[in-house]
């Protein structure tokens, strides 16, 4: 018993490598199009301690898939090894050959999976290909962690709409800005950089037209080395009120702008915005031209967008909250106060919408970030 007591049980080893595969998958979160960002590790277990022989993450744009890259790196070392994959290996001939077949051909002895693929083309078939080839398969390892990491993909496949994160920055006195003042500094530089990193991890940034009119924001990523990773900027603008001279169009050739308009929008205004290189999409509205947040998200889902960061303003946030369309809230709490002419935030630490609970808390300089998740 002396020696074997120091060897961790298989389940612990599996969790350790799956955690590493999940961390790897996060590198390309938001950058793989309709495809989820998957992490894969090939681990040899025949020596005194397990050794990683290959690693892969779904490539930018969605292909090649993670497993193919991990297997390519491992080469002949995959023979008899264990593969850890955050999503069930695919079984369909899509834009790339099936990963399940590649795993069989590589000679791996065991495959550990976190989440089964809900994609109708896969849905268990990946597992059965492996099974039939005599490979030992285990699934459900760190499933809930992996589900969080690919929440956008699972939301789109399961609910036909993207996963929506509401980001708000509130002052110590619960305000998100000052009336008529344009952009007001609520948080410091470190927190602003954290927001930009959040943008990188989402496929789209969304704001109501009121924010464009009031703040004229750029909504791009300006972190050194990540400038090219700005997601599409979506403006909820039923009446096409976005000013054609808005700053966000200055970069429209490098980072796209998508305007969601209703049938009530004036043709002339829509044309002027199209001339500024905005993509225009008509979304169904009520007879007054108002949008149902569900319909907005459904449209974005049809376009293949998996995850959206809603960045304002107060009214748009309220509408999406009221419709039950917010899945996560990222609340930055600054240390400054705005005062009497402030615009009250729809969410503060003291007024968290029903059904949300604190998932994580962190600190950025003088500011705090509280992340809330749905309890269901
Ligand atoms: C994997 N490994 O790394 C990813 C998978 O259009 P395709 O051919 O690229 O297939 C897309 C589907 O493949 C996607 O809906 C999801 O079910 C799965 N993604 N599968 O084996 C990967 N990203
Ligand atoms: Zn695949």
Automatic annotation (TrEMBL):
Keyword match Metal-binding: yes
UniProt binding sites for NADP(+): 169, 211, 215
Higher taxonomy: Bacteria, Pseudomonadati, Pseudomonadota, Alphaproteobacteria, Hyphomicrobiales
One Gene Ontology MF term: zinc ion binding
Highest taxon of source: Bacteria
Catalytic residues identified in the record: 67
The encoding gene: ribD
Catalytic activity annotation: 2,5-diamino-6-hydroxy-4-(5-phosphoribosylamino)-pyrimidine + H2O + H(+) = 5-amino-6-(5-phospho-D-ribosylamino)uracil + NH4(+); 5-amino-6-(5-phospho-D-ribitylamino)uracil + NADP(+) = 5-amino-6-(5-phospho-D-ribosylamino)uracil + NADPH + H(+)
PANTHER family named among the record's database cross-references: 2,5-DIAMINO-6-RIBOSYLAMINO-4(3H)-PYRIMIDINONE 5'-PHOSPHATE REDUCTASE, DIHYDROFOLATE REDUCTASE FAMILY PROTEIN (AFU_ORTHOLOGUE AFUA_8G06820)
Residues that bind Zn(2+): 65, 90, 99
InterPro entries membership: APOBEC/CMP_deaminase_Zn-bd, CMP_dCMP_dom, Cytidine_deaminase-like, DHFR-like_dom_sf, Eubact_RibD, RibDG_C, Riboflavin_Biosynth_HTPR
Keyword Metal-binding among record annotations: yes
Biological source species: Kumtagia ephedrae
Function (record text): Converts 2,5-diamino-6-(ribosylamino)-4(3h)-pyrimidinone 5'-phosphate into 5-amino-6-(ribosylamino)-2,4(1h,3h)-pyrimidinedione 5'-phosphate.
Enzyme Commission no: 3.5.4.26, 1.1.1.193
Co-factor remark: Binds 1 zinc ion.
GO biological process: riboflavin biosynthetic process
Cofactor: Zn(2+)
Name of the protein described by the UniProt record: Riboflavin biosynthesis protein RibD
Location of the CMP/dCMP-type deaminase domain: 12-138
Record-listed substrate binding positions: 199, 219, 222, 311
Pathways involved: Cofactor biosynthesis; riboflavin biosynthesis; 5-amino-6-(D-ribitylamino)uracil from GTP: step 2/4; Cofactor biosynthesis; riboflavin biosynthesis; 5-amino-6-(D-ribitylamino)uracil from GTP: step 3/4
